[in-house]
What we know:
The protein has helices at 15-23, 38-48, 57-60, 64-69, 86-97, 110-117, 142-152, 172-186, 212-216, 235-243; strands at 2-6, 26-30, 53-54, 74-78, 102-105, 129-131, 157-161, 163-164, 168-169, 193-198, 206-211, 225-229. It has 244 residues and is of the alpha/beta class. The protein has two domains: 2-108, Cobalt-precorrin-4 Transmethylase, domain 1; 111-243, Tetrapyrrole methylase, C-terminal domain (Methyltransferase, Cobalt-precorrin-4 Transmethylase, Domain 2). It has a five-stranded parallel beta sheet with strand order 3-2-4-1-5, with helices on both faces. A five-stranded mixed beta sheet has the order 6-7-12-10-11. Strands 8-9 form a two-stranded antiparallel sheet. The longest helix is centred in the C-terminal third of the chain and has 15 residues, at 172-186. The N and C termini lie far apart (46 Å).
Amino acid sequence: MLSLVGLGIAYDITLEGLAAARECDELYLESYTMPIEEKEISKLENAIGKKTVRLSREKVESTFLVGRAKGSNVVLLVVGDPLAATTHISLLIDAKRAKVPVRIIHNSSILSAALGKSGLQPYRFGKTVTLAYWRKNYEPVSPLQLIEQNLFGDMHTLLLLDLDPELGPMDAKTALEQLEKMEKKYGKRVFDKLVVLSRVGHPDEKIAYGTREQLKTKNLGKPPFCFCIPAKLHPLEEEFLSLL
């Protein structure tokens, strides 16, 4: 069997996930979709009672895990929720084609946690948007266009910031600067106010709301970050945001 076990947004593995990890024959960990600190991995291994084997993206996307699961009980630990990343959907498809039984043990995801923590009503969110680092010959403005489409439909936007293996997780102020550059290239200002969420679910979580100019001068916390860009506010949303 192949079990995909979510670690949640704060590496708080569920009781069912803990039992699966303790009972398995082979225990693997992937953290390329969301980096995890070494001290957190050590805490996790101590709770489980065994070491994890780290897998690269290439290894997870290959036939390796499905092949191992044909003769062993294999667990793959995934930060967040196992099915919140396309890669793991592909893994699920590969296992089903190979007739390998699959078990999914869910956990919290930034896709749900950030919406609630922002104070904005989850059902009013439109397309989720990712802001990638600009590079030489790669300076897209498509994130702004998607935000604009959401706002035109009176929908909020969850904006995820890049988690590049080489450049590291994008800082909130770097993201604000890049959005300004995008607007200059796009030729219009798309939005002004936003919610900045830092390390959602962790003890040092920070949430701030304001105009981009106001947020530039604030201590916004540490990465990983994500932004929520509000459309027209409901009175309850407005009241909650005013308290931030």
